[in-house]
Amino acid sequence: MRAHPMVGDSVIAVMLLLIDVAFFLTVGAVPEEANAEPAPSVGWYVALPVDLAMVLPLVFRRKHPLAVAYALLVLGAVHANLQLGLSSLVASCIGVYSVVVYVGRKHGAVYLALMIVGSVAQLVVQGRQDWLVNSIVAVLLVAFSWLLGEFVGARRAYQAEVEARLHLLETERDQATRIAVGEERSRIARELHDVVAHAVSVIVVQADGASYAIRSQPDVAERAVRTISETGRSALAELRRLLDVLRDEDGGGEPRLPQPNAAELAELTERVRAAGLPVRLELDGDLADLPAGVSLGVYRIVQESLTNTLKHAGKGARAEVRIRRSDDSVHVEVSDDGAGRARALVSTPGAESRGGNGLIGMRERANVFGGTMAAGPSPGGGWVVRATLPVRLAT
């Protein structure tokens, strides 16, 4: 019935038609003086088409409720005047219900007023002695139909509101899922960039050095090859860790191995020194109790800055890393001398693009924690990266 509502309406129409046909046959077969109700004054060839026309619009009452209601009003007047049964009264009540539920109260009130006036006028014109009782019964039936329509209409409105809210919640959930997936993809992309860019830069520098020293300085070449091997293994372990994060379905996306932090900066600078870039590390303050995210951010910013120095500063460059911890923030400064080459005091267009995606990743890391990051050429030559990250994250 819910999937095909016209079937249910058709069943109602057929039942009313059978009741009217039974009324016509029963009342017409009894002598008039014994009838409690007046016998139909027309033949079956008139009564049957009128009965059929009376109930047929009910089949379409859901698709065209207002048009069907007024058609029932007109046909009901003809049906009631011919005294052919109960279809006119029942169909009129169904018309009131349909208008209230599917159209609205305003149209329902107009329709109800017209129907009551027409019914009372019809009873008075017919001159029946029980017109007052019949009018009261008709009004009560119509009022019941109105109240039933109000109840069903309210239920339908409530159900529509619930469905709309459920749809909104599902949309918000899907949107939140997409945002979370995007953030996780961005985090993993930053991690991959930091790991791969740093490792590949070290490997390239060491490989170039080994190729030059392999004949004249075999010991230096051997150390370079050893550094390449260690850097490759470290990068491979990092990549496996990130792949474990992607494959982990039960771990909530948490890495299975600890991520690097600010306490490992000395080890990082040592690896960069082994790659051929002299680095001076200066630490001011305790970095051991930094929040895990801030500590990782400091490590990655220093790592990316030194990687850019390896790639762009040139042979003979030197770098300095200064980390200063205050009560409420950590200040990071990584600078290089550009191998002694002076730069213009005014940056040229595109100078800020050094490092490419690396600068974007560093800036995003700082912004995530409510910090700031700036990078650009030093007035006396070289490149400098400055970042400030708050120690106490906003809650």
TrEMBL record:
It catalyses: ATP + protein L-histidine = ADP + protein N-phospho-L-histidine. InterPro entries: DUF7134 (IPR055558), HATPase_C_sf (IPR036890), HATPase_dom (IPR003594), Sensor_HK_TwoCompSys (IPR050482), Sig_transdc_His_kin_sub3_dim/P (IPR011712). This is histidine kinase. Residues 294-392 form the Histidine kinase/HSP90-like ATPase domain. It holds the Pfam family HATPase_c. One of its GO terms (molecular function) is phosphorelay sensor kinase activity. It comes from Prauserella shujinwangii. Keywords: ATP-binding, Kinase, Membrane, Nucleotide-binding, Phosphoprotein, Transferase, Transmembrane, Transmembrane helix, Two-component regulatory system. Residues 1-156 form the DUF7134 domain. The chain crosses the membrane at residues 12-30, 42-59, 88-104, 109-125, 131-149. SUPFAM superfamilies: ATPase domain of HSP90 chaperone/DNA topoisomerase II/histidine kinase. One of its GO terms (cellular component) is membrane. Its EC number is 2.7.13.3. Residues 184-249 form the Signal transduction histidine kinase subgroup 3 dimerisation and phosphoacceptor domain. Gene3D superfamilies: 1.20.5.1930, Histidine kinase-like ATPase, C-terminal domain. It comes from the Bacteria.
